[in-house]
Amino acid sequence: MFNYTMRRLLLAIPTLLFIALVIFLLLELSPGDPMADMPLTIPPEIREQMRLALGLGEPWYTRFFKWLYLFSVVEPSHVLASITGLENLAIDGQRIISFQTRSPVGDIIAQRLPQTLWVVGLSYLFGILVSLPIGIYSAYRQYSWFDQAGTFVSMVGFSLPTFFTGPLLILIFSIWLGWFPIIYDTTLVVDSWYDFALQMRQMAMPVFVLTLYNAAQITRFMRASMLDNLTQDCVRTARAKGLTERVVVLVHVLRNSMIPVITVIALGIPQIFTGAIITEQIFRVNGLGQLLITAIYATDIPMVLTLSVVFAILIVVFNLIADLLYAVFDPRIRYD
Amino acid sequence: MTDAATPPSPETARIRPPRNQWWDVWDQFKIHRGALAGSVVFLAIVIFCFVGPLVWPYDATYIDIRSRNQGMSWAHPFGTDQLGRDIMARMMSGGQVSLAVGIVAMALAMLIGTGIGVLAGYFRRIDGLLMRMTDLFLALPLLPLLLVMSMLFRQPLSAAFGVETGMFLLIVTAIGITSWMPTARVVRGDVLALKEREYVLAARSIGTPPRRLILRHVVPNVLSPVMVSATLMIATAIITESALSFLGLGFPPDFPTWGRLVNDGIDYLQQYPSRAMLPGVFISLTVLSVNYIGDGLRDALDPRIRGR
Predict the structure, then answer these.
(1) Which of A151, A164, A223 would best serve as a mutation to test chain B binding (most B beta carbons within 10 A)?
(2) In this structure, are A78 and A181 located in the same domain?
(3) What ipTM goes with this model?
(4) Which of A212, B72, B169, B232 is 20 to 30 A from B270 in CA distance terms?
């Protein structure tokens, strides 16, 4: 197990390096000009100096390795410093600078992270909490009206794209009923019950949209996995021993069925960061997805590169976690 | 017991000629009500998009500024937009693009996925390499990559093939090469199991070259998982294209696709809600029906469920 984890982690390094290189080269080839947003009145020679100040004068490999050094050494030290509160841990000097805002990329990501985590993380949590009981009960009463309704709703939730459900909710709840605000106000500081209510109201719609989508997917997995296990011999034995139905379903079947569901849940966690791009765009939540979109529009190479590689790291790490969880929960699986 | 004792009469033997297995599949598919309803809806949408423009008098890009922002009427069943273009005509031509993108991207992804899956499963020497490549693609953050790609190749391809064809090629290729991985994994798993079967051994022992062995014996047997993931792939590709268009990085503004129409309609959500909702309903209906067809196909193609 330990050897397997180490081997996977070592294998992850070249994978991530390659992904970083691919994204860097794609951005490098892109026709967009980081100086395109500057006023046209700037004379060409000054424009050239500004390009050099952004570091664009150096060859691509120099810039890639500099970015790599900053990303793997300097930025983690700042993250560590801000988590532990020890200022002297942070390495002084150059950091990865966003072309758009001229401030360190790490700081901007740290500013945007709470919004994404609140909205997307909460919706993932709600999705799991809603979908598990529905999936269990639908499988237990297969082809009952509850199962039919549940399967239909999860199919609908799975098929409706968020850029349709988002505007639909805005139309019903903001425009017709006027219950919730259309635009998410990030500057809101929650320090009283009134502000807390405001915060809940503005979070309601984006969280609901994402919850519907997440819950639909997990319900389908939960139901399929329960159905597979309900017909196992061990279940018949458990019933024959005279165990109550409650114990049979919630202990014998559920524990076995949770194995694939847990890995699916773990695999979905990185997607909640990247997959929220559209929802964040619709509700104007300025989280990480929205940051990525604006960075792409503005050809902000360091920002796009850093964010994409962070996303890739999340994907690789959670893939590994999913595989390890599989082995932890299922003693039949051995990675040796 | 009595049934088994009576020999089958010559009539029943004559009534039941040997059946093609696809009839069995169809019989099972028919039972799945959702799949049947899904096929009807999907067919209706396809007819609406591809036959509709032949009947419908308005052109999707014809601007009639005097009759702008009209509501629903007999002349314009879905109304007109802010430039007086007929929304029904725009829905038809938008649907053509969305469906075409979905189907072509699916075909590309299936081709790559099946190819890599079969090669990795059949030839052990390249298995490791191909599967590492698949893992690498799976670790790519796809939506950001798609966005960067569509920004990057937009101008050169538009210049080379014209704006519309260029964007079509770009989006289809981008979706195709970022979504073949699940198919490749499933196919590889199946091929690894198939390779050990007796008929493959028999074919090899009479000297069938690998190329013909793959095409004659292996590929037809992995067809059913490929068909199921192909249906689901159409749905994903339509959603991805719409998402790209919705974010403004897909087709150009004057070129209607469903995602683009939702994006344009959002600005008028307060005054004319139907303008964003209609294309959204069409996308959702298409995806829903395709997903139901996929569900039905999965049951119908599974010999363990079939006939039960």
Answers:
(1) A164
(2) no
(3) 0.78
(4) A212
Give the pLDDT band (50/70/90) at residue A37: low
Tokens of A141: 């009463």
Between A and B, how many CB-CB pairs are < 8 A?
119
CB-CB under 8 Å, B269 with A161: no
**Closest-approach residue (CA) in chain B for A317:** B139
The backbone torsions φ and ψ at residue A97, rounded to the nearest 5 degrees and listed phi first, read -105, 135
Distance from CA of B208 to the nearest CA of A (A): 37
For residue B285, what is the domain's CATH number? 1.10.3720.10
**Residue A97: strand, helix, or coil:** strand
The CATH number of whichever domain residue A116 belongs to comes to 1.10.3720.10
Contact between B84 and B65 (Cβ < 8 Å): yes
Which of the residue ranges A54-63, A128-137, A254-263, A299-308 has the most confident prediction, judged by mean pLDDT?
A128-137
Q: What is this structure's pTM?
A: 0.81
* pLDDT value at residue B1: 43
User: Do A293 and B247 count as a contact with CB atoms less than 8 A apart?
Assistant: yes
**C-alpha–C-alpha distance, residues A160 and A179, integer Å:** 23
The pLDDT-based confidence of A36 (bands split at 50, 70, 90) is: low
Residue holding tokens 């600005």?
B267
Give mean pLDDT in consecutive 10-residue pieces for chain B, a chain of 308 residues.
50 64 77 82 87 75 69 70 75 86 90 89 84 81 77 76 80 86 85 84 88 85 82 86 81 79 80 80 88 82 62
| pLDDT for res A60 | 78
Kindly report the backbone phi and psi dihedral angles of residue B305, in degrees, each rounded to the nearest multiple of 5, phi listed first: -85, -35
Q: Inspect the interface and report whether the beta carbons of A30 and B280 lie closer than 8 Å.
A: no
What does the alpha-carbon distance between residue A147 and residue B34 come to, in Å, rounded to a whole number? 14
Instruction: Find the CB nearest A315 among B141, B243, B249.
Output: B141
Tell me which chain A residue has its CA closest to the CA of residue B238: A161
- Say if residue A265's pLDDT is above 70: yes
Name which of B285, B257, B275 is nearest B76 in CA terms.
B275
Position B14 scores a pLDDT of 61
The answer to whether position B76 is within a domain reads no
